[in-house]
Amino acid sequence: MTYEPKALIAEVTHRCPLHCVYCSNPLEMQRRSEELSTADWVSIFQQAGEMGVLQLHLTGGEPLARTDIAELIKAGRSSGLYINLITSGVGLDGAKLDGLIDAGLDHIQLSFQDIEEGPANEFAGTRSHALKLRMAAMIRERRVGFTLNMVVHRSNLDRLEQMIAFAEQSGAQRVEIAHVQYYGWALKNREALLPTRAQVDKSIETVEAARTRLKGRLRIDFVLPDYYAKYPKPCMNGWGHQQMLIDPNGRVLPCHAAGVIPGLEFSSTREHPLRWIWGESPAINKFRDESWMPEPCKSCDRRTRDFGGCRCQAWLLTGDAAATDPVCTLTPKHSVIEDILAQVNGNSRSEWVYRIDPV
Amino acid sequence: MTLVGLESILRLAPGCRLNEHGAGQDLLLIPEGALRMQGPARKIVELCDGVRPVREIIEDLQHRYGSEDTARIETETIALLTRLRDRGALESV
Fold first, then answer.
1. Which residues of B touch A221 (CB under 8 A)?
2. Distance CA A216, CA A212 (A)
3. N or C: which end of chain A has fewer CB within 10 A?
């Protein structure tokens, strides 16, 4: 079986002016001095284009923290890629935005931490909300794809209707309402972030009603917290199946979080051609097929749909990366999820742990 | 589901574009992925220039692909344009 890569997530830096309590970056972030150069990225995009990759997601950290961001967009575009910039908007102004669009930017995904300024700034660990509102207004004036990303969790989920109302008049074509996923900094802050079951149920109703009302005007993508699911998510649509992530230092991973799994050596674009890493490197092949699967996955009909769930979550919650994702109600290890949910659906509230920027 | 009307004027929505011609396969790139453009689909999308109405696009296609089955060309073009509009890839001007 060969796997054709469709999307490249380029984590061009870990530097970021925000300190979000659910940041998906690893706890050990890479320094500026370790980052790939412009020429390194240009070569990567070219190789990706030749391999048939279609989408390039420029992310970080804050990708605008790279002074060469327009050059990176241009290079991606001339390699035949569709360019999506995932940004907090901090560091953007009208002239800079025009420059990025001229360079070939197709789409901007602008993240929001809340709809109310106080809490938004609290979750971001920085005063960025007012600036984001100005950026949204600037983006809507220009002809570029625009998606709003609303990150939701226990402390802001009750304002979901106001968030959707904001999205409706923001000029965005699409809003992604993404429940926090528990990796990286979000796992550290999980007890404070995980919503209650009542909140999750309410959020599903709210989104369904909004989808009906806004049909044809605003697309709503909705990511549920998998802790409340019956079966695991098909994480990345399979390990090494369609998507790859390249970190600031050039390591190629199957996703944002896989660096936490011990014993895996992720190959670097500094040392190997991208085609070899994707096709042949041991780490990308580690959980690609079904040979690693334990029961109940091995004999389960769902294994071709959810691929046993998330390897990183299995490692983080059970200490075994080759276990069934404990989100799955069919595995005895699901008890770890039940314990957390019992705790969260009681009455507890923890303090935030903020990420500190790499130098 | 309302169909795209003959007098509608359509164009690609922001963030949507056809891939480079001759890239191996014809694709309409959209924010969440790519749609495969089979048969005359690429040509039809190219004709959605935000100026000419759907009626003219259909006439152009009937002319281009022979007029033996004009009714079928009309039905299939409208079905394709409706799907792409509902998918958010095309917008009305």
1. 32
2. 9
3. N
- For B28, the 3-state DSSP assignment is strand
The secondary element (H helix, E strand) that includes residue A219 is strand A219-223
- Contact indicator for B8, B49 with CB cutoff of 8 Å: no
* Global ipTM: 0.92
Is residue B33 classed as helix, strand or coil in its secondary structure?
strand
Residue A219 tokens, joined: 């697309």
CB contact under 8 A, A146 and B29: no
Tell me how far CA of residue A105 lies from CA of A60, A74, A102, A110, A142, in angstroms. Answer: 16, 8, 7, 14, 12
CB A45 within 8 A of CB A103: no
**CB burial of residue A348 (10 Å; 0-12, 13-18, 19+):** exposed
Contact at CB, B33 and A6, closer than 8 angstroms: yes
Instruction: Return the structure tokens found at A7.
Output: 């999307």
B61: part of which helix (H) or strand (E)? helix B54-64
Residue B89 and residue B28: Cα distance in Å, rounded?
Answer: 8
Per-residue pLDDT of A11-49, as tens digits, reads 999 999 999 999 999 998 999 999 999 999 999 999 999
Q: Round to whole Å and give the CA distance between A172 and A105.
A: 16
Rg (CA), chain A: 20
Integer Cα distance of A198 and A324 in angstroms: 27
Residues pairing with A82 in the sheet: A55
Residue A144 with chain B: CB contacts under 8 Å:
14-15
Residue B8 distance to chain A (closest CA, Å): 15
CA distance A107 to chain B (A): 5
Measured between CA atoms, how close is B11 to chain A, in angstroms? 12
Q: What is the pLDDT of residue A134?
A: 96
Amino acid sitting at position A76: G
Q: Count how many residues are written for chain B.
A: 93
- Phi/psi for A127 (5° steps) reads -85, 85
